[in-house]
Amino acid sequence: MVQAQSPARPIASINPATGQILKTFLPLGDSELEARLELAWRTFGSYRHTTFAERAAKLRRAADILGAGREQYARLMSAEMGKTLTSALAEIDKCAAVCHFYAEHAAGYLADQPAQTDAQKSFVRYQPLGPVLAIMPWNFPFWQVFRFAAPALMAGNVGLLKHASNVPQSALAIEAIFQQAGFEAGVFQTLLVGSERTARLVADERIKAVTLTGSEPAGRSVAATAGQHLKKTVLELGGSDPFIVLPSADLAAAAATAVKARMLNSGQSCIAAKRFIVVEAVADRFEQLLVEHFRALKVGDPLLADTDIGPLATEAILTGLDAQVRSSIERGARVLVGGGRLAGAGHFYAPTLLTDIPKDSPAYSEELFGPVASLFRVKDLNEAIDLANDTAFGLGASGWTNEPDEKARLIEAIDAGAVFINAMVKSDPRLPFGGIKTSGYGRELGREGILEFVNIKTVWES
């Protein structure tokens, strides 16, 4: 039973490009929240016995609904958190793709696995755990949810979404998509509640596991609460991904990709390249290319097709980023491009490139969540690897070289959950995604992702 909670303030959807309040919602009351938790638990009792074919048919319908409404959903994301329309449309397409992927592959991933033992018969069976609480961030309002929901629902679990409080309309739209696709109301529910009620949700005995994508402090808090109740968690937290450029690299391609990798979602991405580590022999040329690309970026209305950088999602994010940049400059970092917030309405920050970054500055050790890049010069591959690993984070890394030995060394030596060679880091339904160190633990996507929230049951028959 969820304990009584004092009245909470309304949850507001605010357009970050204008500061206009789009809509407000009253958080769920105690009785409403209790009813949703109980519905999830009751629904799991029957939903777990549905067939893969039944689940897959509904998940494919969800993909069709996403495709039919892609413009509407994309505009909703742009209005609610400032994502450019171009990237929002791509996000909807990716959500549809992950639905199709798990609709096709879940049955194979979760089929009984025979084992060779001295038993008459032995095998491994994969069974759902129950209601899974998903605590999701605002930066990819649809994708983060669907990459959890598609495998979780295909495995026979039911989902409860506690979305970021600044994207309530996206959260409700996703719930509606699953219901329109034919899933029972209790299979996927959105819980409009504030973060102050998260701990009680994690502790509730009906919730059997938790997945969180968000900040390191949020991850520590959720993991601590879940640990007290011995519940499985998957955490995808922050990142400060290195982007290493070696002398044999195609510099033009590397620089063009570097800008895309940093400015993904206006720089508000955990897997965005944030630290550009360049060997001295090619550093001048690479810096020149980066500066040219940064200066060419267009900041403005996210709904316009030629906008590259939209607003940051909230005033707090903008203020925090600006403080990190100012502190880095005060400690000796040099500004090559940009360096501050833009005048006028909305939460806009200039595309910024910093260099000569001292070790005691935020730009060296902290995650900068916005359109700000840090450029470092190193003497060789060894120094590049040392600098790449000199971080508390370990999410992704990108390395640029045409030398086979250097490719092998980067793959082996970089401490990260993913290493991309001559490409920008991205998530893909076909591959596991996640990090190490303070970037979290566990994996989403791929076969590994669907196995996170199942009981891996050993069966032995004599």
Features:
alpha/beta; globular; disordered N terminus; Aldehyde Dehydrogenase, Chain A, domain 1; single chain; seven-stranded mixed sheet; 462 residues; 15 helices; Aldehyde Dehydrogenase, Chain A, domain 2; 2 domains
Structural write-up:
- With 462 residues, this protein is α/β, with parallel strands linked by helices.
- It folds into 2 domains: 11-237 and 439-461, Aldehyde Dehydrogenase, Chain A, domain 1; 241-428, Aldehyde Dehydrogenase, Chain A, domain 2 (3-Layer(aba) Sandwich).
- Helix content is 41%, strand content 20%.
- It has helices at 30-47, 52-68, 70-81, 85-109, 143-154, 168-180, 198-203, 216-228, 251-263, 280-296, 315-330, 362-365, 381-389, 404-413, 446-451, and strands at residues 11-14, 21-25, 113-114, 121-128, 131-136, 158-163, 188-190, 209-213, 232-236, 241-245, 273-279, 334-337, 352-355, 372-378, 393-394, 396-400, 418-421, 436-437, 440-441, 454-461.
- The strands form 5 sheets. A 7-stranded mixed β-sheet has the order 12-13-14-11-10-16-17, with helices on both faces.
- Strand 8, helix 8 (216-228) and strand 9 form a beta-alpha-beta unit.
- Helix 3 crosses helix 4 (85-109) and helix 9 (251-263) crosses helix 10.
Task: Give a summary of the structure in a few sentences.
The chain has 462 residues and is α/β, with parallel strands linked by helices. It is built from 15 helices and 20 strands.
